[in-house]
C-alpha cells in the first residue's frame, strides 16, 4: 500500500501539465507517529503565532 501511495504521489508531482505542488506559503505537517492530539496542538500553536 505504501509503495502505491508513493508512486501516485510521484506521478502527481512530476506530471507535465499542472504538477501537484504545495502552495508556496503552505505549512507541511509531518504526522508520522504522532497522535491526533499532538497534531492538533501543533496546529493551534501555529495559529497562535499569527
Helix content: 40-55%
User: In percent terms, what proportion of residues is strand?
Assistant: under 5%
Number of strands: 0
Please count the helical segments: 2
- CA-based gyration radius: 15 Å
Describe the biggest sheet? none
Structural class label:
mainly alpha
Mean pLDDT: 93
In whole angstroms, how far apart are the ends? 37 Å
Q: What is the N-to-C order of secondary-structure elements (H for helix, E for strand)?
A: HH
Question: Care to describe what's here?
Answer:
The protein has two helices and no strands. 54% of the residues lie in helices and 0% in strands. The longest helix has 14 residues, at 36-49. It is mainly α and 50 residues long. The mean pLDDT is 93.
Q: Could you list some keywords that capture this structure?
A:
mainly alpha, 50 residues
Q: What's the SSE blueprint?
A:
Elements: H1 2-14, H2 36-49
Short description, anyone?
With 50 residues, the protein is mainly alpha-helical. The protein has 2 helices and no strands.
